[in-house]
Amino acid sequence: MFNTIAQEIPLQRIDFYGRELWIKRLDLVHPHISGNKFYKLKYNFLAAQAQGYQHVLTFGGAYSNHIAATAFAAQLFGWKSTAIIRGEELAERPYNSTLALAHEMGMQFRFVSREMYRQKNHPEFLQFLQHEYPDAYILPEGGTNAFAIQGCQEILNADDLHQFNLICCAVGTGGTLTGLIEASHPNQQILGFSALKGDFLTQELQQLTSKKNWQITDEFCCGGYAKTTPELLAFIRAFEKEHAIPLEQIYTGKMLFGLSHMIQRGEFNTGEHILIIHSGGLQGRHIAPA
Ligand SMILES: *Cc1c(COP(=O)(O)O)cnc(C)c1O
């Protein structure tokens, strides 16, 4: 299914605090392999397939969109899938909606302590896992690697490269943002809204790209990964009601919340044409009605 070109992704125009925004609805790319995860998995699955793999192993938290997407993609390919899930204590509990769905797709879980999970990129730990699962193609957390970046370059088409000066995207590991940066035209600015606290992402991305037309802000992370504030949740509810575009509280909600503040502070020139990447992730939406 990755061989077929993703259909033309709809661009939706909205009025937002007196500005015109164009939203690229990656949430509509595939019902389950949602948003940026479709692009991040594409070349990983194609490369693994070419090498004869029929089993994928990856890492994530219990609500991870990447886990859900990987489970679905593996099922479509007829492969086994295994996930290393952060949090030993979860082994004893009923599955949440993400894990229940992934499990239905045939995914096997291995719940590990936070301490062990932190070793997810260490060569010895990866060697240990490869030894335990000798037939598995190992995908890093969030699916971020060179293949993922290659896939995310396809998010922008030729029109996007000409029509927009500013491209906004939510950031977790930064793989998607790196793809956008690599694909971008030099006179475009790429602005990442981090879902996490801290400026380590800027340093990590500097290792991944030599381009300079980008920036990451963590100002609107609302205290850190998966943290929310009443203001954020109220913003999301109001946005969804006004525009009939669903958001979630971890990534896309924080991006648009941040953008609303920046627009109201007058940070963008009126001539600026703004493209918003809606990176999907709606399976992880947990917003109680007001
Ligand atoms: C995973 C995810 C991101 C973060 O993507 P990275 O490539 O890890 O930065 C952003 N938005 C949504 C909805 C996601 O599911």
TrEMBL record:
The PTM N6-(pyridoxal phosphate)lysine maps to 37
Q: Known Gene3D superfamilies for this protein? A: 3.40.50.1100
Superkingdom is Bacteria
- Alphabetically ordered keywords of this record: Pyridoxal phosphate
Supply the InterPro entries for this chain.
Answer: ACCD_DCysDesulf (IPR027278), TrpB-like_PALP (IPR001926), TrpB-like_PALP_sf (IPR036052)
Instruction: Please name the catalytic residues of this protein.
Output: 64 (nucleophile)
Q: What is this protein called?
A: 1-aminocyclopropane-1-carboxylate deaminase
UniProt source species: Acinetobacter towneri
Q: What is the lineage of its organism?
A: Bacteria, Pseudomonadati, Pseudomonadota, Gammaproteobacteria, Moraxellales
